[in-house]
Amino acid sequence: MIFVWILAQSGSCSNAKHDDVLGHVADMPVHASVVAQVADEEDLSEARALARVLDVLRLAARMRDDKTGSGDEKSLLDARRVHQLRRAGSARLWLSTNFAPQHRPEHVPEHVLERAKQDVRYLHPELHLLCQVVAIPIDGTVPEAGGTFWPHARQAIDRLANWFDAAVSNDDARVCEILTRISILAQPDISRGIKIKFEDGAFELDACAQRRDDGTCEQPRWDPDFVAAVRAGRAGDTLPAFHTRFGVHLVFLREVLPAQTADDPQLDERLRVVLHPGWQREAFHHAMQALREKHSIRLVTLDPSP
What we know:
This protein has helices at 2-9, 32-42, 46-68, 79-99, 110-116, 149-167, 175-185, 224-232, 267-295; strands at residues 21-25, 28-31, 127-137, 194-203, 208-211, 217-220, 237-238, 242-243, 248-257. The protein has 306 residues and is α+β, with helices and mostly antiparallel strands. The radius of gyration is 33 Å and the shape is elongated. The two termini are 57 Å apart.
C-alpha cells in the first residue's frame, strides 16, 4: 500500500540526507527519492507525485496530532481531504490485501479457459491475416487462359499499386483502410470487362474444401498460386502483384499468427495471461456489487391503508 510505504520511507529529519530532502511536513522530511518512486509506481508526473506524498504526510501529521491534541495547523489537511485520503487508503488496502491476491492469472477458472478454447481467437491453425484487391471479370466468371482479360487486368492492378505506394507506407496502421478506399475509387472497366474486388480476412492456407474417405484432402480450398505467393511473403509487406486462375491480386500481408493447438502444453498458461485482465475486471465488478448489497440500507415502510 503506497500510504504505508511513504510513511516507512519518511524517517526523522536527523536520518535524512540533506541533498535528498525537498522539504518537511512537521518533523517528517519529503525525500526526492520517495517522490520519484511514487511517480514510477503510480504512473504520475513529478508534480502530482509530490502532491501525493505531501498529502500522505499531512494526513499522518493530522492523525498523530488528533491523538496528542497538539500540532501545527499549517501542516494539517482540511477535514474533507482527510476523509478522501482515508477512503482511498482503505480501498487500496482492500485491493492489495483482499482482492488482488485471489485474482491473479493462475486463478482464472477452468470454465473460463474451456470457453476460450472454443473461440477461434485463441485456438486456431496457422492464420495469414491479409487484405487484397483482385482484378476479376465483371461477370464473375473464371477468365480464359491466354485471353485479353489478363493484360488489361494486370494494367488495372499496376495502376492501383502505384496509387497505393504513393499514398501509404507498409508500417502505416491504415494500410487496409486505404486499400479499401482505392478499390472503391477504381470504377469497373466495362469496355474491358474488369472490376476490382476487395477482400480482408484471416486465411488458413492449408484449409481443405473437400476430403476423401480416408481424411486426406482431395480439393484444397485456396488456389495453389495464391497459397504459394502468400507463403512466400513476409508479414508487414505488400506482395508483388501475382496471377491466379481467378484474376490478378495485390496483397498486403498484415500478420501471420502461429498455430494455437489444444495439445500445446503451455496453452493454459498463455490463455490465463491473455484472459486475466477481462476476468479480473468482471470479478471486481461482481465484488463491488456484492459489497454494495451487503452495506446498502433498505427502508421498510408499513402499508398506511387500514
